[in-house]
Amino acid sequence: MTGTQHSPYPTQAVILAGGQGSRLRPYTDDRPKPMVEIPGTGVPIIGHQLAWLAAEGVTDAVVSCGHLARVLEDWLATAELPLRVTTVVEPEPLGRGGGLRHAAASLPRPDEPWYATNGDIWTRFSLREMAAFHHERDATATLALARPRIPWGAVKTDEFGHVLDFVEAPPSPYLINAGVYVFSPAFTALLPERGDHERTTFPRLARERRLAGFPLPQGAYWRAIDTAKDLAEAAKELAR
């Protein structure tokens, strides 16, 4: 890891859990987005995330709260958690990059690498593999890359315009930011105090070839829970 001799496998993480979740209403009328339960599990999204992080060797997590923070804090105070959790609330809206920097200030080991994840991501893959990938490339930041399925059916044609086939919900031809990250200790100081790191810090690191992209392994489960339809699809996939 750049500038350190620590293990490449982080033991600390930040979960960004302050979003409004307006597209998930009415589920988010009385709770923040990460507190929405995956149907059939009885566990909120953040509960699944904390269990995943703990299984991957994380011992300390900082949860950045915002919208209806008290609901999330109350749940964390009473739930049986598999790791140590600290909550922080932004004093004012800081933007995604500013919020990440504010939360990172509460990490217990600022001189060690750390994971981060958006609070609405439900996924399972090896974070240790991602951390090793990050370490091997001597990156300052690494983002997981997903290839989501297009929500519409696709039509295949030949060069003459004849329809050859219909493909239901094909994989996208593009990779997207999956909302899961590995950061070197030096990354924190590069974050803006307010604003969006994806418009400032990430493009700068990309130009300097210090930003890596880790494609999710074949068959890894990944879903962003943005709408009621996403919840229903997650429940169906879980049942399978």
Automatic annotation (TrEMBL):
Pfam families in alphabetical order: NTP_transferase
The Nucleotidyl transferase domain, residue ranges: 13-239
GO MF annotation terms: transferase activity
Keyword entries, A-Z: Transferase
InterPro entries named in the record: Mannose-1P_guanyltransferase (IPR050486), NTP_transferase_dom (IPR005835), Nucleotide-diphossugar_trans (IPR029044)
Entries under SUPFAM superfamilies matching the protein: Nucleotide-diphospho-sugar transferases (SSF53448)
Protein name per the record: Nucleotidyltransferase family protein
Source organism per UniProt: Streptomyces luteoverticillatus (Streptoverticillium luteoverticillatus)
Taxonomic lineage: Bacteria, Bacillati, Actinomycetota, Actinomycetes, Kitasatosporales
